[in-house]
Amino acid sequence: MKSFTSLRSKINLVFSITLLLLGILFIVSIKYDHNKVEDLTETQEREISHYLYMYFLKHGKIDEAYLEAQNISIITDKGQLVQIERYFKDKGNYTRYAVDTYRLKRIILINNDRFKLFLENKNKAVFPLKRALIFSTVFFLILMLYLWIIRSLKPLSVLKQKIQTFSQGNLNIACTSDKEDEIAEVANEFDHAVKMIRELLQSRQLFLRAIMHELKTPIAKGRLVSEMLSEEKHKVRLHSIFERLNLLIDEFAKIEKITSKNFKLDIKSYKVSDLVEASIDLLMIENPKQFIRLEIKKDYQLDVDFELFCLVIKNLLDNGIKYSIDKSVTVIIDTDNFLIINKGEALKEPLENYFGPFHASQKGLGLGIYIIKSILDIHQMKFTYRHEEKENIFMVR
Q1: What is the pLDDT of residues 326-371, one digit of tens each?
Q2: Taking the domains of the chain in order of start, what are their residue ranges?
Q3: With contact defined as beta carbons under 8 Å apart, do 397 and 382 qualify?
Q4: What is the C-alpha separation between 93 and 89, in angstroms, rounded?
Q5: How confident is the model over 49-89, as pLDDT tens digits?
Q6: What is residue 238's three-state secondary structure?
């Protein structure tokens, strides 16, 4: 039934039924005319038989001139007469009066007490040429109308392809139309919307890149100043702070590409344990074993983009440490999933409510969960959450 939901299918169905009904009407009309001619022929043949009988009683002979005028001939060939007579007898039609078809010829048998005749009626039914021309013209017009409508729907297929291209992240499309129908209006409005979206995205990208570029300069200057400090402890601390800020700007650049669907994945196979170790390094925390306990039950390979997936794990670890009661998390790697567990209160809302950007919540789970979900969706992975025995358990599989 799904195939009949599209507009093209409905048009095909309507015109198919129309042409079918037209064909049935033509056949029925031809059959009606044929039956009408058949009835008229039978009546005329009976009148001819009656006339010949009366004429024979009056004149003692057959009126051959009358038969010729009616386009009816007397069969005189003896061999043919024998075959026709046998044919009528075999069919049980050898009576006083009978009409049958013998070798595509209409034969009339008149067998009374005065004479016996086999006549051939040479009158043929005239093909209804005028009616056939009318029906053919109507059929042709309906067919032309169908082709015209289907052709007018062709821009819809082009527009659909453009929309599919647009949905895949390609904003460099044009679908303007110089026609004046409703499809052209939709195409032109969509083209206008694409231009507006493209301009908005370009302005947003320019704005974000300008901010990140401006932030790079003071960070670089801060790093230079920190190198001039004499006290090694403050020097290392400031250096790590500026490294952290620089790393955050790089992550923001990746996030901007992800959210704008302008990121090309570099998919390769990695061990999950290696991904977790790399993500721990991104956290840039001293003595990570104090905050993160790694438990590998069964390590396995994942086909992922290394940088993006490490960003997922890093955000999960960062959130886990930040919002846990004891400021620590447990990472469990097992077969086809890994879990990040921390001790704390359950989320106030279902996890799905945190998937939107800048979600307002007491614990501040706004942009982080949104980034995690966006990257996992790109990798076609599932992200689930449950709370058991005062522990928050986040699972990626």
Answers
A1: 889 999 998 888 899 999 888 888 888 877 665 555 444 355 677 7
A2: 2-121, 154-263, 267-396
A3: yes
A4: 6
A5: 999 989 988 988 888 899 899 999 998 888 888 899 899 98
A6: helix
Cα 306–Cα 320–Cα 248 angle in degrees, nearest 5: 50
φ, ψ dihedrals at 396, nearest 5°: -120, 125
- DSSP secondary structure letters along 77-93: -HHHHHHHHHHHHHTT-
Distances (CA, A) of 28 to 101, 169, 285: 23, 58, 90
- Cα angle, residue 147 at apex, residues 142 and 150 outer, rounded to 5°: 125
How many contiguous H segments (helices) and E segments (strands) does the chain have?
9, 11
Number of Cβ within 10 Å of residue 277's Cβ equals 14
b/e per residue 93-118 (b: at least 16 CB within 10 A): eeeeeebeebeeebbbbbbeeeeebb
| pTM, two decimal places | 0.47
CATH assignment of 154-263, among 1.10.8.60, 1.10.287.130, 1.25.40.10, 1.20.210.10: 1.10.287.130
Q: If you count them, how many residues does the chain have?
A: 397
Task: Please tell me the class of the 267-396 domain.
Answer: alpha beta
Contact assessment for residue 327 and residue 292, using Cβ atoms and an 8 Å cutoff: no
d(CA 90, CA 97) in angstroms, rounded, equals 15
**What does R_g of the chain's alpha carbons equal in angstroms?**
46
**Range 69-84 burial, b when 16+ CB lie within 10 A, else e:** ebebeebeeeeeeeeb
* DSSP conformational letter for 127: P
Q: How far apart are CA 368 and CA 251, in angstroms?
A: 12
DSSP 290-331: GTEEEEEEE--EEEEEHHHHHHHHHHHHHHHHHTSSSS-EEE
